[in-house]
Amino acid sequence: MSKTGIFYSFNSTKTAKAAEKIKEAFGPDFNIVPVNAEELTEELFLSFTNLILGVPTWFDGELPNYWDEFVPALEGLNLNGKTIAIFGLGNQVEYPENFGDAVGIMAELVQEIGAKLVGYTSAEGYEYESSKALVDSKFVGLILDQETQPRQSKERIANWVNDLKSQFSW
């Protein structure tokens, strides 16, 4: 079985809770390894075949500082043979002009360096002005809005994980 990691900041409460729910949704038959994105190294990142990246959008559409600090190392890696899915949190009411942008920023970066990106989701049911995560009317990952749509997260996670189960190499 291929090694699958879920990378997120253990100190980011809402993202950590979402990551735990994603891990639970895979069920006991799938070994999903939690990795603290704040302690990430190139070697650790490359040790996984399947990677699930937790990338919440900060401020005005930015990557969190722990991911931003890892970007120079990431840009030097070859991700051919890696399959990556991205989830993130955003707030479509308070930040409608850059909703989920960090997911789009990370997706573009990992694709440029050879990763296969999976886990696209429907943009239906969200109300926002713009998003860098939107490509051909789909989000390039799972975007959860725990501020204005928390009740929809459980179903969105379940649907996304079911999709990933068929797209990851096990």
As a percent range, the share of helical residues equals: 25-40%
Identify the overall geometry.
globular
The first-level CATH class is given as Alpha Beta
Count the beta strands.
Answer: 9
Rg, alpha carbons: 15 Å
Largest sheet: 6 strands, parallel
How much of the residues is beta strand, in percent?
15-25%
**By CATH's scheme, which homologous superfamily applies?**
Flavodoxin domain
CATH architecture tag = 3-Layer(aba) Sandwich
Distance between the termini: 5 Å
Instruction: Specify the number of helices.
Output: 5
Q: What fold name stands as the CATH topology? A: Rossmann fold
Which regions are unreliable across 5 or more consecutive residues at pLDDT < 50? Answer: none
* Mean pLDDT figure: 96
| Count of individual domains | 1
Question: Quick gist of this model?
Answer:
With 170 residues, the protein is α/β, with parallel strands linked by helices. It contains five helices and nine strands.
Describe the structure.
This protein is of the alpha/beta class and 170 residues long. The chain has a single domain (4-167), classed as Flavodoxin domain (Rossmann fold), CATH 3.40.50. It is 34% helix and 20% strand. The chain contains 5 helices and 9 strands, in the order βαβαβαβαβββββα. It has helices at residues 13-26, 42-46, 65-75, 101-112, 153-167, and strands spanning 4-8, 32-36, 50-54, 83-89, 116-118, 121-122, 134-135, 138-139, 142-144. The strands form 2 sheets. Strands 1, 2, 3, 4, 5 and 9 form a 6-stranded parallel β-sheet that branches. A 3-stranded antiparallel β-sheet has the order 6-8-7, with no helix packed on it. Helix 1 crosses helix 5. The chain starts with a strand and ends with a helix. The relative contact order is 0.18. The model has no long low-confidence stretch (mean pLDDT 96).
